[in-house]
Write a structure and sequence with these properties.
Elements lengths: L1 E4 L8 H10 L9 H25 L3 E8 L19 E2 L4 E9 L2 E8 L6 H15 L6 E5 L11 H14 L9 H18 L2 E2 L1 E8 L5 E2 L1 E4 L4 E3 L8 E4 L6 E8 L6 E8 L10 E2 L3 H13 L4 E6 L5 E2 L12 H18 L4 E2 L6 E10 L5 H10 L10 H16 L3 E12 L2 E5 L3 E2 L1 H10 L4 E5 L8 E2 L2 H6 L2 H4 L7 H15 L1
Parallel strand pairs: 3-15, 5-6, 14-16, 21-23, 22-24
Antiparallel strand pairs: 1-19, 2-4, 2-7, 4-5, 8-13, 8-18, 9-17, 10-11, 10-12, 13-14, 19-20, 20-21
Helix pairs in contact: 3-5, 6-7, 8-9, 10-13
């Protein structure tokens, strides 16, 4: 089932129409039918022209804000299939909000330095923020950058580790405060603060291709298998099993006089799993923001939306050099900062700045498992991180455990889009989407500049292509949705963009 929600349209105040009818000479019910028809058409034409003039006179306004969402030290960390606890903060985790308004239309994008956004969190924040800001909840996008050095605050793994700690200690030492509640409060607050900062903006947009940072991490091997992350200089590697998306998209919001940059939005498809360890870190988007601030102003807010990178990472398997740690995050962040610098001279004004927002809800089927497999998964959860089972067996165990807790056969997923002008749109998708799916959306989009943000509103795991399910490997094994779910999201996104 697909539910389609309407988009913005020019609004004409009722008193304007009434007064216009009274003032228009020659419009009378006593005129002959033909004359009345001509006058009625003239009235309708004038009203539409006036409505368009009113709409054109309304400027696009944007407000930016940031909030610290770093958990306390000692909180359980996300990113891997074993338990680890934070020991320090390398750089604070942030939520960055961009609230947009034009006339009666309102929308917002929040990007968080988290591995994902749970549906319970996004629902709570969107509803609470909507009451305070009057932004429709359906027009609010909450996304995660997917840093692997943030908190594990929701999901099947968190629930298992939390329950095990409570059974052992009567309480969970890693969760001394109600962080999910604190996180929700701060996300609502950052939206409210961004709305307070609304002001007219001048938008410029551009993009460039960055081909030396990202790699498809799924490889064909000599034995015919597809393997994720086969290891550096592995002689059995034949070649990548899929493409990358090299587009670095960049939107700059300036004051109307173009004398100050208020904020930026950038998009690139690359897994933020370069740091590792037990210190909180935003990974390479932190260094990207530093680079952009050096270019355009120390006070600006840099929103980074990770594009479709479910099968893309930073590892060059043909190079033996290690690629892990803060140095690697800094290298990538600065390289993307250089990409932003190279785009600047060629930035173009966003054509016909506007604000139109749309959403589709798509029902996708979920994997189902036998009672025996569910029982085995519950028993095998104790083996996670022990080395007693293979990596893919651990992945499958965690997936089944998570899905059985949901107890659903299908899931309603949102596809959102925000149109900023005749040539520029941002698409929001749930989950970790394969690059091929994002590229298909961009290819079919009627917008010259189509930027995609994944991991929006619901952390559903990997969304591979049908082909990848046939090939197997890590990502399909860690996917909740059945084959074809990704293509359904693509079709919905394309329909939505064409409607906008």
């Amino acid at each position: 089932m697909v539910i389609i929600y309407g988009t913005a349209r020019p609004s004409v105040p009722a008193n304007f129409v009434r007064n216009f009818c009274i003032a228009l000479p020659g419009l009378s019910r006593h005129k002959e039918p033909m004359q009345r028809t001509k006058n009625s058409r003239m009235l309708l034409f004038c009203i539409l022209c006036s409505a368009c003039s009113l709409q054109a006179a309304e400027s696009l306004k944007i407000g930016f804000s940031t909030a610290d969402i770093t958990p306390p030290k000692g909180w359980r960390m996300s990113g891997y299939f074993y338990e680890r606890f934070s020991t320090n903060t390398r750089d604070e985790l942030q939520a960055k909000a961009m609230v947009m308004e034009r006339g009666d239309e309102k929308a917002a994008l929040v990007v968080c330095d988290l591995i994902g956004i749970s549906r319970s969190l996004s629902t709570q924040v969107r509803e609470a923020a909507s009451k305070k800001t009057k932004i429709p909840a359906a027009n609010i996008i909450i996304a995660a950058t997917h840093t692997h050095t943030g908190p594990l605050y929701a999901g099947g793994l968190r629930d298992f580790f939390h329950k095990r700690a409570e059974e052992k200690f009567d309480r969970d030492p890693a969760e001394g405060v109600a962080y999910p509640n604190i996180l929700a409060e701060r996300l609502v607050a950052v939206l409210v603060e961004a709305q307070r900062g609304l002001q007219p903006v001048y938008l410029e947009v551009g993009s460039t291709m960055v081909t030396n940072l990202s790699f498809n991490r799924r490889y064909w091997m000599n034995d015919g298998r597809v393997v994720t992350n086969p290891g550096k200089t592995n002689a059995n590697v034949v070649g990548p099993a899929g493409p990358i998306d090299p587009q670095f998209g960049f939107v700059v919001a300036m004051s109307p006089k173009k004398d100050r940059v208020l904020g930026t939005f950038s998009s690139f498809a690359l897994h933020p799993d370069t740091v590792g360890g037990t210190e909180y870190s935003a990974d390479y988007p932190f260094y990207l923001e530093q680079s952009i601030r050096k270019l355009l102003g120390e006070d600006l807010v840099s929103l980074f939306g990770n594009s479709t990178c479910g099968n893309i990472n930073h590892v060059n398997v043909s190079d033996a050099k290690p690629q892990k740690g803060q140095e690697e995050a800094e290298r990538i962040g600065k390289a993307l900062g250089n990409a932003a610098s190279s785009v600047l001279p060629g930035l173009k004004p966003v054509k016909s700045p506007t604000l139109r927002v749309g959403r589709e809800v798509v029902t996708v089927p979920l994997h189902q498992f036998t009672a025996e497999r569910v029982a085995n998964a519950k028993a095998d959860m104790q083996k996670l991180g022990t080395g007693q089972t293979s990596f893919l067996e651990q992945v499958d165990t965690a997936r089944i455990y998570h899905l059985q807790a949901q107890g659903a056969s299908s899931l309603q997923l949102e596809v959102q889009a925000v149109c900023l002008g005749a040539d520029t749109a941002i698409v929001g998708l749930p989950g970790e989407i394969f690059a091929e799916l994002g590229l298909a959306i961009k290819k079919a989009s009627p917008f010259k500049n189509t930027f995609i943000v994944e991991l929006c509103n619901d952390d559903i795991g990997y969304v591979p292509t049908r082909k990848a399910y046939e090939e197997g490997g890590y990502e399909p094994t860690n996917s909740s949705v059945k084959p074809g779910g990704g293509e359904m999201l693509v079709e919905a996104a394309i329909r939505l963009l064409k409607r906008l």
